[in-house]
Amino acid sequence: MKKQEYAIVDIETTGGNASGSRITEIAIIIHDGTNVLDRYETLVNPEQDIPPSIFGLTGINNEMVANAPIFDAISEKVLEMLTDRVFVAHNVNFDYSFVHHQLEQAGFKWSAKKLCTVRAARKIKPGLGSYSLGNLCNSLNISLENRHRAGGDADATALLFSLLLEWDDAGEIDKMIKKTAQDQRLPPNLPQEDFNNLPDKPGVYYFYNQAKKVIYVGKAINLKKRVTSHFTGNNIKPQRQHFLRDIHGISFEVCATELMALLLECTEIKKLWPTYNRALKRFEAKFGIYQYEARNGYKYLAVGKLSKFQTCIHEFNSHYDGINLLRTLAEHFEIDHRFCKYTRPEEGEFFQNNDTRDLPDVSFHNEQVDNAIEFLLNNRPSFAIIDKGRSRDERSCIWIENGHFHGMGYIPRDVAINDSDEVKNYVTPYKSNQYIEQLIFAYAEKHPRKIFFNKQLFIS
């Protein structure tokens, strides 16, 4: 049986992601687990300009690569050296993504088992201050010449790999190169134990950067499965590459239900505003209902975009939702449609309505507008959603106060709850927003048997 061989690879590039950048230099060292068998190194013409920042880091400029072969010209040689060998690199997913992408562009379909020497070093030599190549070489007395050049870094990685093989009494490297090994897909800076601690339960997870700042918050029906999905595939887009490199830690909070996880995710994103969360940031309220009084003494209700300088009565995600509620209020409180505006008027627009036939009594009209506003502010429903807990010893509770999300928590199963005040003793308050309220009301409508202590129903 042929002995397992390894291709130790290092590349220099024009930028940080394979989709928009190109390889400028590549070095491949073939290793059989004991000795170096072969070596290949070349500059590569990237067919695009090398940014000054990259020149400052690597020393490679446009003149140096002008007469170098383009990647297509060396692609067969690269493929030959990589075929049937384990692809080894320091932060392997970075190098692998570039090589895979450029081989694919050259017309070759290639994949390989991967081994990350960052992750291998973490397993075999735990407790070091840093696992960057430069710091590892300092810590382990490995010679590192021509730093940030493909040949120099590949030579250092080969020496590191030889030492790791020598120190690997527990067979960690063999475990890691198995195709099914989960940790090969993990970001290079993520401690394995952070991933191992994730449960197969609903909840919210947090990704942290090196400074311990939360950079992403997500919710999951199954925490381990959802987090794993972030690390699978071979996405070469710059956003994902930067995202994975930034992940230095994970924490989580188990929730009893998917709804509670979703509510916690929303509130945490609003509170922490993580760098890589984009989807839920779009659900900020954009419209509101406003009240105006015209010079003729009549009060108007209008739907318009939110403004920092005016206070609205109620907020909405969409213009459509605002229009629907205003129409419902006007019908319920018999407010003349001429005093309802479905876009916020410009200055003076209220006074230009020439249809003054059979106007309602101003006092009665204004009283109805006030009643509608009071209802909107003070008479929306209060209720609890009681559901399963995180264990058999408890129940979960979400409390809605006057139409707004008040908070959520857990009630011991042996505690009898007889009224809403007792429920509120067990919930942790959270800030509400219109998107959260939409989620809760949609859930309540779909699961009426989970609703308790319902006070008043909102008009529909």
Characterize this entry briefly.
This protein has 16 helices and 17 strands.
β content, as a range?
15-25%
Anisotropy-based shape: elongated
Major sheet attributes: 5 strands, mixed
Low-confidence stretches: none
What does the radius of gyration come to? 31 Å
The CA-CA distance between the termini, in Å, is: 75 Å
DSSP summary, beta strand count: 17
Number of helices: 16
- With strands numbered from the N-terminus, the spatial order across the biggest sheet is 3-2-1-4-5
Helix amount: 25-40%
Overall mean confidence score, pLDDT: 87
Content-based structural category:
alpha+beta
Describe this structure as you would to a colleague.
There is one protein chain. The chain is an alpha+beta fold and 460 residues long. It is 35% helix and 22% strand. The chain is built from 16 helices and 17 strands. The chain has a five-stranded mixed sheet with strand order 3-2-1-4-5. It has a five-stranded antiparallel sheet with strand order 16-15-14-13-17. It has a four-stranded mixed sheet with strand order 11-9-10-12, covered by helices on one side. The chain is elongated. The model has no long low-confidence stretch (mean pLDDT 87).
